[in-house]
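Morning!

As promised:
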Amino acid sequence: MANQLEATGKPVVGILTGSPSDLDVVKKAQETLKSLGIPSELFVLSAHRTPELTARYVKEAEARGLEVIIACAGMAAHLAGAVAAHTLLPVIGVPLKASLDGLDALLSTVQMPPGIPVATVGIDNAKNAAYLAARILARKFPEVKARLEADLAEQQKRYDNPFA
Ligand code: RP5
């Protein structure tokens, strides 16, 4: 099926992460989006070290055509929450294992106050952040829904069918 999103090459998902040291894990989000035909962009921006740049990127994101933001961070992981403070786009948080087995980042990311949600995936699970972004995009882009259906069918090939 022709994929209009892929053809435009215009990013619809913005991926942010708090440090260059996160990139090995975070790149899995971008790879997974690419495998589903979804263009994305990836920037290292920090809630603590580059707060102004982060806020500017997020405030301009919707006007630039982004539909979802994935924000990844470890330790006192405020990036996803800080991003959600500056946009009404859906924000997916990925807590990273940089200390305390990632539990510090998990709690920092998931425990947002009411009204400012961050959809948090598992520790280091950048891949699931991409799949969740794809499910959000599938509501608007039928080609993404088709790719997700094909992907699920592929996953199911690893399982038995007792009724076949
Ligand atoms: C967080 O602090 C980053 O997301 C990273 O996971 C962690 C450590 O950062 P570095 O000291 O390695 O730059 O903000």
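The first strand starts at residue 13 and ends at 17.

Hope this helps with the figure draft.
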